[in-house]
Amino acid sequence: MSRLELPKTTRFAEEQEVPRSYWDKIAARREARFVEGFVLTEVEDPKQLFRFYAEVNINNSRLWELFMHLAAMLPDVCACLFCPYEGDVTYGEYQEKESILAILGSLQKELTEDCRLEFGLIYNDESTLTEIYVAESKYVKIWGVDRQHFEKLMAQYDIPYFEEMQFVDGFPKVVVPLTTLDAEAKSTEETLDLLENAFAPDNQK
Asked: Are 79 and 94 in contact, with CB atoms under 8 Å apart?
């Protein structure tokens, strides 16, 4: 199985780039395998509104296509959520999913390659929770109720199941702004402002 394709804005750190206390993690990273795949945990607690939690490693060039297909797990009305890395999450207003995906599609490059921001879709009511969330390192977290639908999508994309997997954000890394690699790309701040205007205009001062 080929090595996982990372976003171009991220690479693993080397010893000279981090404090000595991180060197053990760098040594462990060199022994780790980073590949496409998913891990899944069933949730049996009836007080929880989701029935499974999964994490998916996906080659960066396939991230957007997978995200769009995972979006089918949510109803036709849902909300967008987004945040800067390690920042507070903004929850957008509920609206037509088709409209949300059209706006996100106009920012596809930034959303899939800028590792200083996170985004996703959520639907939550009194009895269910479904959330598709793209973390800063551009792997996907899923809280869902329809495990069969999810596993069917994984099979469609030839993404195998593993009992355990390694994810990029578990190891020291170097992240650079997307604008330093692509002069036409929007900055993290500009992208977040566009998302704010589109999905949570009442938060604007």
From this structure: yes
Whole-angstrom Cα distance, residue 186 to residue 9?
A: 13
pTM of the entire predicted model: 0.94
- What Rg, from alpha-carbon coordinates, does the chain have? 17
Rounded to the nearest 10°, the torsion over CA 156, 140, 6, 112 is 100
Rounded CA separation 59/48 (Å): 31
How far is it, in rounded angstroms, from Cα 97 to Cα 100? 5
**84 and 114 Cβ atoms separated by less than 8 Å:** no
d(CA 201, CA 205): 9
Q: How confident is the model over 85-109, as pLDDT tens digits? A: 989 999 999 999 999 999 999 999 9
**Inter-axis angle of helices 63-70 and 147-156, nearest 10:** 150
Q: Which helix (H) or strand (E) holds 148?
A: helix 147-156
Q: Which amino acid is at 134?
A: V
Sequence length of the chain is 205
Query: Does position 150 have pLDDT exceeding 70, yes or no?
Result: yes
Q: What is the pLDDT of residue 203?
A: 67
Distance CA 205, CA 196 (A): 11
The per-residue pLDDT for range 42-85, each reduced to its tens digit, is: 998 988 999 999 999 999 999 999 999 999 999 999 999 999 99
CA angle 129, 134, 140 (to 5 degrees): 80
